[in-house]
Amino acid sequence: MRRVERYAVGLVRRSVGHRRLVCLLWLAVLLAGGAATAANLGRLDQSFTASGQDGSRANAAITERYGAGAGVAPLVAVITWPAGTSGRSAGAVASLKSGLTAATAPGTRVLSYADTGDAAFLSPDGRTTYALVYPRSGKPDLAGLSAVRDATERLRTGLRAALPQARVEVTGVLPLQEDSAASRPGLLLQLARTACALAAGLLLLRTFRPLLSLLPLVLTAVSSVAALTVVVALAGSMELSFFVVYLIPVTALALSVRRSATLVTAWRAELSHGRDTRLAPLLAGSVLAGPATAGALAGAAALAGLALFPAPFLRSVGIAGATVCLTTTLATLTLGPALLSWAPGRPREQRTGRRPRLQLAASTRRLHITAALPHAPRLLAVTALVAVALLTGTAGFLTAGNPRAEALVRGGPARDGLDQLTAAGFPAGVLNPLEVLAPSGVDPAGVASRAARVPGVVTAVAPDAAAWHRGGTALIAAVPSGEPMTGSGRRAMTDLRSAPAGTGTRIGGSGMPELDLVQGVYRLVPFSLAVMALLGFAVAARLRSAGAAVRAVVCALVSALAVNGLLVLVWQYGPVARLLGGVAATGAVTGWIPLVAGALAFLDALDRSVTSGAGPRVRAGLGPVTALSLLAIGLGPQVELAILATGLGGAVLLSTVLLRALAALPARPRPHGGERSAEPVAGALPAIPASPYWSRPRLPLGHTIPLAEPSDHAQ
Fold first, then answer.
1. Taking CA 284 as the corner, what is the angle to CA 301 and CA 4, rounded to the nearest 5 degrees?
2. What gap in Å lies between CA 442 and CA 268, rounded to an integer?
3. Which tens digit of pLDDT belongs to each residue from 536-579?
4. Please, what is the Cα angle at 295 between 291 and 300, to 5 degrees?
5. Any bridge partners for residue 171, and if so which?
6. For 629, which of 3, 192, 261, 615 is 20 to 30 Å away at the CA?
7. Three-state DSSP class for 117?
8. Who has greater pLDDT, 375 or 182?
């Protein structure tokens, strides 16, 4: 037994001996940590952008000077005049100008045909026009989104009152997302969500029984709060992204379910051998200590390697993943055995006498199936491996970025405005205009002229209004034809950056962080995967064996790539997007989700591989619990939430499928003295002499629990 495993077993022993104190400590962590975390979540960066890149710096400069626009996409007011009325007429222009003034707050930047006279703001027939409205929202955080929500309602109501003769709609990226969040799922989706929740609950009950099924949920809660408390505390000294709020609980749930199943299975095995009710939790925890510690250290080391990279996105994933690995394992090895020491002294099968017959019947059925179809398990395993390989290759087609506007919501006021806009002949790129910040001494009109000549830019305007000038600087608005996730949209952003070279201008806008994410973060992904693989291999080889470490790292890398291929296949190209609540193919996957899903898939597969073969055999079927729980929450019309649920749930599910498929393949015979064998069961562990480190006060039972039973008591 290695030193780190002896420390883990000693921790289990102390926890069982001081079970009341352990439970009180974790209760304090849950309550105090939860309150502290909720009060300080504002420390986390809520913009979900790749900070430190050119686009984010430009957006920060624009927000600081103008208080609007930049990283927050503008509202788009779409006005269609009645038949016989031209938007070029003096009366229509005057009505539009006065209506926009009345419907917006002071200091709001507005750009329309009434301000510029640019024909690009009019449809070919002259009846439909649009206006870009930049409310004073500040940073793209939760407060900024709330300000945009209020401005949307004010703009829609005010324009309809000022222009009763015209059809007025208000759309934009944020209004579309708001309508998506407010939409209710259809009957079929509600039934699917209910079925997923019931299936996850039944799987837990099937493994743990009613009372013990709460154990993984309790461990998930306390370890999530502990990890979030640490991450929020670190956010005071470094930049960490808000998406860790999603990563940590899902990772804690996946690890807690698996570790709890191993703990409970070992505990029941010890009780069935007649162990004392206070000794059985200790022995069960001793069985779990070795594999759980090895998996946690390997996973934490691999994820911690991401903190070495300068990108805050990767640093956030690394710190959050490593922290939740350690807190979940700590909670399982301390709180788990402590709670089991209060559980009933006999397993359910001993009380009823029916379970062994059920197990025998199930085993008999499996033997009959195997005899009838001897090659079925191998065929299924090969099919699963081929599917995972195809998903791994599909990951190369990933496009990171916000989904297409038309895929965000099926209906609602914002979707009506988008349909009205595109039906009039305007491109969807209108929703994500770019902003050029011209420094003092640079002619804004000249910058706008050069920007308008960039391929893929419909028009570029340098307004003369005071709201577009601050402290000697000026803002120029450039309207692209394609959305940021499209090829034409990204080429336009790249070319626009190089067009005014040497003038000191900065290019910002809501679409620029997507380009920064690809150029500043995703280019580091191959190096980050290499670092994670090396660190994970080093720890796994030290605690297990070189062969097991290679297998674990390969499985982790394949799982991380395969889950991104799943997102591409399901959402980006969209053949089954409608079944999961989407409208159509999104054309892209929300930029930060592949990073989070890939990290979870890597961690889960690495942990499963390192801990496989150690400890008792756990009942099959627990793998889908996390995925089903996420689908029960994420299925629905809110597209980005559904993408997140698909990514995180698919990460856990794919790692389960991959490892089960590999286990079903015929094993190659090993020569004698090859890899180290799996950990022995607790009852067969040799007695370890008690040292001052392991000594502890006597238990209420009147004796000190040994680390392992002597060989003459083993059964």
1. 30
2. 77
3. 999 999 888 898 899 999 999 999 999 999 999 988 887 766 66
4. 150
5. 76
6. 615
7. coil
8. 182
Per-position b or e across 585-614, b if 16+ CB within 10 A of its CB: bbbbbbbbbbbbbbbbbbbbbbbbbbbbeb
pLDDT of residue 703: 38
Q: What secondary structure, in 3-state letters, does 217-260 show? A: HHHHHHHHHHHHHHHHHHCCCCCCECCHHHHHHHHHHHHHHHHH
In this predicted structure, what is the pLDDT of residue 50? 67
**Long-range contacts (CB closer than 8 Å, 24 or more residues apart) made by 692-698:** 693/10, 694/10, 694/13, 696/13, 696/14, 696/17, 696/18, 697/17
Residue 368's contacts (CB-CB under 8 Å, 6 or more residues apart) are none
Return phi, psi of residue 436, to 5°. Answer: -110, 120
The length of the chain in residues reads 715
3-state secondary structure of 87: coil
Provide the Cα torsion 217, 11, 226, 221; round to 10°: 10
Between vectors from CA 275 to CA 271 and to CA 279, what angle results, nearest 5°?
105
CA 216 to centroid of chain Cα atoms: 21
Residue 82 to residue 65: CA distance in whole angstroms: 39
pLDDT tens, 367-389? 454 555 566 778 888 888 999 99
Q: What angle do CA 176, 411, 594 make, to 5 degrees?
A: 50
Hey, is 681 helix, strand or coil? Answer: coil
**How many CB atoms are located within 10 Å of the residue 715 CB?**
10
Q: Is 111's pLDDT higher than 70?
A: yes
In Å, how far are 179, 187, 188, 321 from 184, measured between CA atoms? 10, 9, 11, 33
HSE of 398 in the Cβ direction (CA atoms, 13 Å)?
29
Contact 113, 96 (CB under 8 A): yes
Closest CA to 248 of 538, 395, 37: 37
Residue 711 has pLDDT above 70, yes or no: no
**Distances in whole angstroms, Cα of residue 276 to Cα of each of 99, 270, 272, 370, 458:** 81, 8, 10, 39, 78
Instruction: Give 223-240 pLDDT, tens digit per residue.
Output: 999 999 999 999 988 888
Residue-level pLDDT at 239: 85
Kindly state the average pLDDT of the residues 459-481: 90
More confident position, 681 or 336: 336
For 379, the token pair is 């065929």
Q: How many CA atoms lie within 13 A of 394 on its CB side?
A: 19
Is 178 within 8 Å of 414 (Cβ atoms)? yes
For 81, residues 6+ apart whose C-beta sits below 8 A from its C-beta are: 87, 92, 127, 128, 129, 165, 166
Query: So what's the pLDDT on residue 79?
Result: 95
Q: Degrees (nearest 5) of the Cα angle 15, 21, 27? A: 105
* CA atoms within a 13 Å half-sphere pointing along the CA-CB vector of 452: 13
List, as one string, the DSSP characters of 31-66.
IIIHHHHHHTGGGSB-S-S-TTSHHHHHHHHHHHHH
Structure tokens, 208: 């743990």
Answer for the pair 589, 411: CB distance below 8 angstroms, yes or no: no
CA proximity to 528, closest of 568, 564, 557, 558: 557
Residue 173 and residue 431 in contact, taking contact as beta carbons nearer than 8 Å = yes
Please tell me the distance from the alpha carbon of residue 269 to that of residue 284, in angstroms, as a whole number. Answer: 8
Rounded CA gap, 663 and 67, in Å?
57
The dihedral over CA atoms of 472, 473, 475, 476, expressed in degrees to the nearest 10, equals: 90
Rounded CA gap, 107 and 65, in Å? 12
Rounded Cα distance between 49 and 612, Å, is: 37
| Contact between residue 374 and residue 559 where contact means Cβ atoms under 8 Å apart | no
